[in-house]
Amino acid sequence: MRTGREARVLAVGIVAVLAFSVQVARAEDALRFAPLKAEEQSPAQKAWADTISALHAARQSHMATATSRSMG
Length: 72
Description:
- This protein has 72 residues and is mainly α.
- The protein is 65% helix and 0% strand.
- The protein has 2 helices and no strands.
């Protein structure tokens, strides 16, 4: 039978092995579906992609402006 200290050391060891053996993946790295070419998209898909692109560009512009203001 293990003592309390031995059980804790074993538990910490198991957690450490699991933590370091699991590959870390970010949400941005996940590819859920193969990308569609522009000519393969429906009009609704094209409109959605344009909206997302515009929002992304606006956010990038806002972040760049905010960064330059905080630096200067």
